[in-house]
Amino acid sequence: MTAPQRLTERKRAAIIQAAIAEFRANGFEITSMDKIAASAGVSKRTVYNHFPSKEELFAEILNQLWARISAEQSVAYRRDLPLREQLWPMLQAKVQMMADENFLTLARVAIAATIHSPERAQNMIERMGEREEALTVWIRAAQADGRVKAVDPEFAAHQVQGLLKAFGFWPQISMGRAALDAETQQTVAESALEMFLARYQV
């Protein structure tokens, strides 16, 4: 990468970080591109060169959030391994991701900005559902192999992920609780795993 390209990327990253801070502090509606430019230490023209509108800048923040979600470890179903061994890495990766302060910051920004816009909220929910598809696919494959009981795979996936979010996501987002420490992450993931297997394993 050439020096001008590196500078351009650094400016883009600075704009995104400034936008996250401004959106988090002031909300989507009140935050202006002028304020974001000032916080990022760049000109307003530079901000618009990277992002034609505030909506597109916010969409990029959401894209980073989805990228974090989709980067969580997903495991293809294997009939030669115990279900526990296959599910554990997926649940552990998810709870670790939810304990990442950068992820929580992005999530707070996204959720705060969607509260006053049903259309924006609907888009966010749909995209999050798409990113959480890996566990649904795994459950469907385990069912086809006769190792998981007959249940709507999406329902079961949502259920087990809800157990994780009840401890590691929503209290942090809505009540400002601290991210889970490593020991609590382990406890929460293990508990969700045991409950899933007790209910659905054949």
TrEMBL record:
Residues 9-69 form the HTH tetR-type domain. Residues 32-51 bind DNA. Keywords: DNA-binding. Pfam families: TetR_C_7, TetR_N. Transmembrane segments: none annotated. InterPro entries: DNA-bd_HTH_TetR-type_CS, Homeodomain-like_sf, HTH-type_TetR-like_transc_reg, HTH_TetR, Tet_transcr_reg_TetR-rel_C_sf, TetR_C_Proteobacteria. SUPFAM superfamilies: Homeodomain-like, Tetracyclin repressor-like, C-terminal domain. This is TetR/AcrR family transcriptional regulator.
